[in-house]
């Protein structure tokens, strides 16, 4: 009998899989979970918290659909292990609005028609909110560069940039903008 994998996670029955206790403040509410050690923040948010606004796109950290705000930083939740971020404060798209009052970025996306199918929109908005909080945006070129990790398959980039500039109260380009450059 080959024992090279004996005692590893591959050999363990489902009830024996290592579970890790984690605690988060998610959208203003403290929540505790026991998760498998390899559970990503994306899977925790979607499967354990039932917050479906954070999307699973590429599952490789290349599209930004899974972006959430963790301890004030925008991260690709598909790449982040929940156990690594134990104790973090997490804001998802569901946590941005204040009751019935939309976050200024959410309203700007509506006002500028900055979405088509809407699949990437939660990640775009969370990324934009955290990006503006970082304080590095001075113009449309900054927005394009700093949002380049968030893809929109529908091509709504011009309107996305306009929405972000509006939410940041920054001037728009005179030529209407070229959207995010690849």
TrEMBL record:
CDD domains: fer2 (cd00207). Coiled coil: none annotated. Its cofactor is [2Fe-2S] cluster. Residues 20-96 form the 2Fe-2S ferredoxin-type domain. Keywords: 2Fe-2S, Iron, Iron-sulfur, Metal-binding, Oxidoreductase. One of its GO terms (molecular function) is 2 iron, 2 sulfur cluster binding. It comes from the Bacteria. Pfam families: Fer2 (PF00111), Fer2_2 (PF01799). PROSITE patterns: 2FE2S_FER_1, 2FE2S_FER_2. This is 2Fe-2S ferredoxin.
């Amino acid at each position: 009998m080959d024992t090279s994998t004996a005692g590893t996670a591959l050999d363990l029955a489902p009830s024996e899989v290592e579970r890790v206790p984690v605690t988060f403040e998610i959208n203003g509410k403290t929540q505790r979970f026991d998760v498998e050690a390899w559970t990503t923040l994306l899977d925790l948010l979607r499967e354990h918290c039932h917050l479906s606004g954070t999307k699973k796109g590429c599952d490789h950290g290349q599209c930004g659909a899974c972006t959430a705000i963790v301890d004030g930083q925008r991260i690709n939740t598909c790449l982040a292990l929940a156990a690594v971020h134990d104790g973090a404060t997490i804001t998802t798209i569901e946590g941005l609005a204040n009751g019935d009052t939309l976050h200024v970025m959410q309203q700007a996306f509506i006002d500028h028609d900055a979405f088509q199918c809407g699949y990437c929109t939660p990640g775009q908005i969370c990324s934009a909110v955290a990006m503006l909080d970082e304080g590095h945006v001075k113009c449309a070129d900054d927005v394009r560069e700093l949002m380049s990790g968030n893809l929109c398959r529908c091509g709504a980039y011009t309107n996305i940039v306009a929405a972000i500039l509006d939410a940041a109260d920054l001037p728009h380009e005179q030529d209407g903008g070229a959207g995010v450059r690849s």
